């Protein structure tokens, strides 16, 4: 129990009187000493660390969950495989077609000159006896 005497707090058990300035500075010092950094508390460590679970039932449930996810995603991928193969075949046909078209255009450009030379050449048939 403390007593207020002339604006100061008097504590009869310790025979000490405190002024308001002493109280505020001591209070600030006590608060600074008692304040903890939240990042080093065990609560923070436990929040971000999972506890090990060695039960076979929990391992089985985890494996079952992974299997369901793999089957679900695998079915999506496998359903698209025919479309992928069809697209690859079409791409291959287009490449072959454009290769043939390109090689035909190149050969026709080169053979046009030779065709004109052969067109100018006339066929002369000579008859020895007639």
What does this structure look like?
The chain has helices spanning 20-34, 42-48, 56-120; strands at residues 3-5, 8-11, 16-18. By secondary structure, the protein is mainly alpha-helical. Among the domains are: 1-38, no CATH class; 61-106. The protein has a 3-stranded antiparallel sheet. It is elongated, with a radius of gyration of 48 Å. The chain crosses the membrane at residues 64-85. Keywords: Membrane, Transmembrane, Transmembrane helix.
Summarize the structure.
With 130 residues, the chain is mostly helical. The protein is 67% helix and 8% strand. The chain contains three helices and three strands.
Beta strand %: 5-15%
Shape: elongated
- Identify the strand order in the major beta sheet: 1-2-3
Structural category: mainly alpha
The profile of the biggest β sheet is:
3 strands, antiparallel
Total beta strand runs? 3
Calculate Rg over CA atoms.
48 Å
Mean pLDDT: 78
Q: What's the end-to-end separation, in Å?
A: 155 Å
One letter per element, helices H and strands E, the order comes to EEEHHH
Helix content: 55-70%
> What is the helix tally?
3
Query: Which spans have pLDDT < 50 for at least 5 consecutive residues?
Result: 111-124
Keywords: Membrane, Transmembrane, Transmembrane helix
Transmembrane segments: 64-85
Write the layout of secondary structure elements.
Blueprint: E1 3-5, E2 8-11, E3 16-18, H1 20-34, H2 42-48, H3 56-120
Antiparallel strand pairs: 1-2, 2-3
């Amino acid at each position: 129990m403390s007593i207020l005497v002339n604006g100061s707090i008097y504590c009869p058990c310790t025979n000490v009187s405190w002024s308001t300035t002493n109280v505020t500075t001591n209070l600030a010092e006590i608060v600074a000493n008692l304040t903890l950094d939240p990042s080093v508390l065990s609560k923070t460590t436990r929040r971000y660390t999972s506890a090990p679970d060695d039960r076979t039932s929990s391992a089985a449930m985890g494996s079952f969950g992974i299997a369901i996810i793999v089957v679900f995603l695998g079915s999506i991928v496998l359903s698209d495989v025919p479309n992928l193969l069809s697209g690859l075949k079409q791409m291959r046909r287009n490449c072959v077609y454009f290769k043939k078209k390109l090689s035909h255009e190149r050969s026709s450009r080169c053979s046009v000159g030779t065709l004109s030379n052969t067109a100018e050449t006339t066929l002369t048939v000579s008859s020895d006896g007639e």
